């Protein structure tokens, strides 16, 4: 906005309006910072608070919620490291992540790429891929229990084709219980992840794929050499999410299907936290494993971030 002044006997002079009020740094004053205070308080109380509590309880000898508490120091760490069940849980968790995560991400990306090409019925395919995500965890566990029980669908199918010698009590066998849990993780996560990849691939310009195909590249090379580098950062984010879900969320599948058995053949770290806290009533041991699980998750996230070399 400008103002006009007329000096005596002269032409009018145009003066610019004074600039808007600015802070000491020269930038316009922002009043929205105070709006973030409730969210920051909520985050500090319900996110940072429990993390601090895990480290505190891990240093205590606490044999139950209503029992007297004493300071244990590093005694819980020594107890955990001397427990063979803990090392079985570490091995099972490592196998679970090493098998389930690559299969889930690779297959979900390929499936998402196929859906993003908009084949006939692609909208219906997207809805079908969402079905495992719409089913509750107990319902999914019941489906797998019905399929893998001694008189379930898997053994019935093997007997019907003359392979009765391959039948097994899949969930009750030390050699197959963990594999069944991994199969459940992959089945429940691959469809939802594929839909996420398809949604991101829809945002890739069609010109990239068309140019690659004009140069003689087939769908396989276009998928991995053209589209994959474009959404590499998104693949890293999805991999992080699935890593965290597999690492921390496997306890419910173990609880519903195998209870960690037979023996400790299907016990994972997240289930061991639950088992020691709510069944064995050893809160110090449980939260010591929780600290180890927290550190493993942090290291895993940093490793995935480094592998995909992104700045998210």
TrEMBL record:
It is found in: Cell membrane. The chain crosses the membrane at residues 34-62, 94-115, 127-148, 176-199, 234-257, 277-304. Residues 90-304 form the ABC transmembrane type-1 domain. The keyword Transmembrane applies. It is a multi-pass membrane protein. It holds the Pfam family BPD_transp_1. It comes from the Bacteria. Residues 1-28 are annotated as: Disordered. Coiled coil: none annotated. Belongs to the binding-protein-dependent transport system permease family. This is Sugar ABC transporter permease. The lineage of its organism: Bacteria, Bacillati, Actinomycetota, Actinomycetes, Kitasatosporales.
